[in-house]
Design brief:
Low-confidence stretches: none
Largest sheet: none
Order of helices and strands: HHHH
Number of domains: 1
Number of helices: 4
Strand content: under 5%
Number of strands: 0
Oligomer: single chain
């Protein structure tokens, strides 16, 4: 059981680093993906409104409120980042409570930061 918790926490830490890199690159307008209105935060407002016009109302029910995560990468990967980061550290805390896994908590955040740095700095996702 402990091994499964460690693997899950490590995978969630990797996912959170990757998601944070997507968020930051989206905000900077540096993602190299084709559909710009989804991937670039500055252009994503058109996905929330009918024909990209706020005066015409929401594109679909809740597109500017509850379901905004479905309209652009910045919101979607922000949600994934927050959930995976929080769960990863909750699992790390649980591992400490189960056993003497204090060193794991020391490795969890640097793993997140390393993955973030790799995807944010190198031209894997960037233009």
């Amino acid at each position: 059981m402990i091994v499964a918790l460690i693997i899950t926490a490590v995978l969630l830490s990797i996912i959170s680093g990757f998601s944070k890199a997507i968020c930051d690159l989206s905000e900077e307008g540096k993602l190299k993906f084709k559909k710009k209105s989804f991937w670039i935060k500055e252009l994503s407002y058109i996905n929330k409104w009918k024909n990209g016009d706020k005066k015409q109302g929401e594109k679909f029910f809740g597109s500017s409120r509850w379901f905004v995560s479905l309209t652009d990468a910045w919101h979607l990967f922000g949600l994934i980042f927050r959930l995976s980061f929080a769960i990863s550290f909750l699992l790390a805390g649980y591992l400490i409570a189960l056993n003497n896994w204090h060193y794991f908590l020391l490795l969890n955040y640097p793993l997140f930061a390393l993955v973030f740095h790799i995807f944010h700095t190198y031209k894997i996702l960037k233009k």
